[in-house]
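Reading a protein record of the kind used here takes only a little practice. Think of the row as the fold of the chain written in a discrete alphabet. With that in mind, consider the following protein and its fold in token form:
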Amino acid sequence: MKALNSFGFPVLRFNFRGTGLSEGEYAGGIGEVDDARSALDWLEREYSLPIIFAGFSFGAAVGLRAAYSDDRVHALIALGLPAVAIEDRAYDFDFLRTSTKPKLFVSGSRDQFAPPGKLEALVSTFAEPKKLVRIEAGDHFFEGRLKEMRAAVEDWLKQLLLTTTNH
């Protein structure tokens, strides 16, 4: 959130249905994709700017599904993307095999939900352009490594913005 905001992007941060103070109940991931689409609609109404989607963990898994085919979304960022099932929730990212939007994946080298080799193998199946950054000694929540995580996002955004403004 802070990395995107530091580049002047408006940022919308929200809870999915049934978490925090939000209303509703968990809807098996399907309703949560609708939540993410509603958030994209709100951003479009409020700002009418190109959107860079960024999500963390479950939010990344769900948000990627909503954002990858949305023409308003120009790039995708996934932090702590789960590469293994969590609490009997298995994630399918086959849709990223054909998504040609720029994609950044940032994960801790000690992320229990993206063990070494698993995330690399998963990301290797996704269409270009893509980048995977592992934060050394970082866990799933980037505990003690938030600075490095933010730097990875900012560096990628600089490259993305340079590339898109030179075309």
Notes: The longest strand covers residues 73-79. The chain has five helices and four strands. The chain has a mean pLDDT of 91. The radius of gyration is 15 Å.
